[in-house]
Amino acid sequence: MDKTTIAKKIIHFRKLKGITQEALADVSGLNIRTIQRIESGEVDPRLFTLKSIADALEVPLEDLLPEPTQHELNQIAILHISPIGFFVLPVIGNVLFPFIFWMLKREEFNNMERHGKDILNGQITYSIIAGLWIGVHTVFAFIAMLFPQYHQFTSKFFMNIAVYLVTGLVLSFIVFGIIPAINALRVYKGKEPWKYPLKIRFFK
Asked: Which of 127, 115, 125, 99 is nearest to 202 (CA)?
């Protein structure tokens, strides 16, 4: 990280809040010497340390971080495109690939933590939905094959199966392909990615 930029930002927000280094140390739960060394630019603080300081200053963590380099943006863009792993390992690849990359890089780059949580929350949610979609239609298919005497039910199911499959493929292409690709491109260009809609916050 850029120690000088971080130090200047912490000093700015601390003075804006009107508190001393001692008060910041007390509220953040950090040692006063740690605060002094960070503000003097002597040390490169870890993300969890910056998170404690940000919480104490009541500002978003991103406000204390320096502007990302192009290398960092490239790495985050790779994270955003990784859910296309769904097309390699359906239902789990879109979660497994970004999770592995996130775990390897989360401590290396400033914004990887925030982006990773948003991606995983969205992709886990969609995997659950996709799994239920596949499971329900698999059950109906077995019922249709095992009980052919229910002609009305089976004929209706098989008449609509093409619609179910096409709908599922289109939705999968959107949430596991198009949105990740657009977000990767946006991040690469230094823009904020689109938020995944209707996601459950498994990671907070």
From this structure: 125
